[in-house]
Amino acid sequence: MKNTTESRLGWGMSDLSPFSHWEHPFSKAPDTATVNIPAQTPASILPPKNNTFSISRVVNFIDGVYFLVVGILLLRLLFQIQQVCRIIRRCRREKVNGIVYCYHKLDLPVFSFFHYLVMNKGQYSPAEVEQIIAHEQVHILQGHNLDLLLVEVMNALCWINPLFIGFKRTVKLNLEFIADKTVLDSGADPLSYQYSMLRCLQPSQLPLVNLFAASKIKTRIHMMNKKRSPIRNLYKYALALPLLAGSYFIVNPLKARAMPLSNHQEAELPDRQDLKAFEGYYQFELNKNSYIQIRVKGNQLILKQMWDDKEIVFNQQSALEFLDVSKGFPLKFSKNDQGSVIQLVAFNKDHWNKVKTYKEPKYIHLQPGELKSFEGCYQMERPDGTRNYIQIESIPDALILRQGWDGQEVLFSPTSATAFFGRHGTFPLEFTKDNNGNVTQMLAFHQDLWKKMQDPSTAIIKKQIKVGPAQLEALEGEYQMQDGKKISIKAESEGIVLKQLWDNEAIHLVPSSSTEFFSKERGMPLVFKTDKNGAATEFIVGERDHWTKIPM
Fold first, then answer.
1. 347 neighbors 338 (Cβ within 8 angstroms)
2. How far apart are alpha carbons 481 and 44 in whole angstroms?
């Protein structure tokens, strides 16, 4: 198998394929390091695989629709509140006994809103005004508007439940029952009160207020004329309580018995305390510098990538199998003959061996002059006779390695006078000096040898250039692959932003020519094709993925 350093550089510096960010969270496939550069480096845009039906995507779609409707309903609620406040501000106001009477000359029904009572006195007789005020005072003094506001908020959150519509109507009607009963109990004439309700009947689009003549007039009048049940009738309802209680305990015994698991389930799911056996550090077989940590949190396992501190939550599927449901990311553990966990396999192919200890890289300080001695261009000859190049530059307390084939940049910090480690903790470099202290070569991944070039002018290194705004804007638009996946391109000050429309991940790219771009963080070279007017028609990623521009 070919083990070229350029492929290892691509693997070590970009653990994830740019267009399948969560498909492979903490490693490339084991055979990745053996593939030649055009197909291997993180330059290929690979949309997430959709060969199988994903329940998580359906759930995410439903979640999106739910929260969208919730947002719309809450915005509508705020608009309605603003509408009521606008009406109140236009009124002539008088405050009496804590109630603000708002008088206007508009063709609006009488209503109350918290401590405001809004009405057009010219539309009603003095007797009707007295009954209206008595009714609305009940709403104001008992804070019924707070109930209505709470119901409207709950309706926005529970819109997906059709039963809540009936519940909202019932609450509003019940508040009117309370106000009607209070007015009648105070000595008001029922017949005159009911005629006043009918004469004041007027349509309204204000759901947040208490209306004197609203909420099913016919039902309210029926309730006012209904005879109250005598006290003795309550005993009939009391007799039903023992029957209801007996029915409940027949269906739900006082001492519930757990449903027994099948033999298969008992074998698959161990006691939760056994999850502690999975805790510890694991080392990647293909890169001894890559570690992950497993720890238990409640009934779940937390996987932490030690190179970037990213955490992934896993739920137990069987005795030794776990799954991150949202990303379809499986883990499978194995034990030795003594029953101790010794290894985990990710994605059914990446092997991580459990280790006793993990030591974080310890970085040291080197003087600027010492770091500058490592600067220059390095080359490595591939088995097919072609050469690849990298460039090393120094900054305070670190080196920047730039891959010549795709422009990707990686930061390294010193662990000794000649050894460096990638900031993500998975990529080692070791330099060799001659007797005069001059750097002659660099070893990557403990085995790939890069020789320092005496004449760096012959090295081919992809570098960023300046491109005008008009040229960048000519590349803007949406692009699509044959499988239907879409991305969008937008211009920014120093280059372009590529946004994956299936997961909204954004990737910033800079130009190496007017039609060639790359990501400093990921490599990922893009080559655009343009028409005679300079407008982009398509682009190619990694010499294999073709994206066609969608006509506007």
1. no
2. 13
Could you tell me the sign of the dihedral formed by the alpha carbons of 447, 450, 451, 452, in that order?
A: negative
Model confidence at 246, in pLDDT bands (50, 70, 90)?
Answer: low
67 within domain boundaries: yes
User: Is 243 inside any structural domain?
Assistant: no
Tokens of 387: 């050469």
Our count of domains for the chain comes to 4
Give the helix ranges, DSSP H, for 142-225.
Answer: 144-157, 163-185, 190-199, 217-225
Q: Are 189 and 183 in contact (CB under 8 A)?
A: no
DSSP-derived pairing of the beta strands 398-403 and 341-346: unpaired
Q: In b/e form, how buried is each residue of 242-268, taking b as 16+ CB within 10 angstroms?
A: eeeeeeeeeeeeeeeeeeeeeeeeeee
Is residue 206 located within the same domain as residue 281?
no
Using CA atoms, how far apart are residues 239 and 234, in angstroms rounded to an integer? 9
- What CATH number is associated with residue 387? 2.40.128
Does residue 378 lie in a domain region?
yes
pTM: 0.43
pLDDT of residue 55: 64
CA–CA separation, 442 and 391 (whole Å): 11
**Predicted local distance difference test score (pLDDT) of residue 5:** 34
How far apart CA 505 and CA 540 sit, in angstroms, is 19
320-347: average pLDDT:
89
pLDDT on residue 374: 95
For residue 236, what pLDDT is reported?
Answer: 56
Mean pLDDT, residues 277-292 taken together: 89
Tokens standing for 238?
Answer: 């009391």
SS3 227: coil
From first CA to last CA, the distance across the chain in angstroms is 47
Please give the structure tokens belonging to residue 546: 């073709």
DSSP3 helix / strand / coil % (the chain, rounded to 5): 30, 30, 40
Gap between the Cα atoms of 336 and 422, Å rounded: 34
d(CA 334, CA 348): 12
Q: Alpha helix locations (H) across 379-519?
A: 469-473
- Return the DSSP state at 464: -
pLDDT value of residue 209: 62
* Longest CA–CA separation in the chain, Å: 114
**CA–CA gap between residue 99 and residue 117 (Å, rounded):** 7
Distance CA 403, CA 413 (A): 17
pLDDT at 463 over 90: no
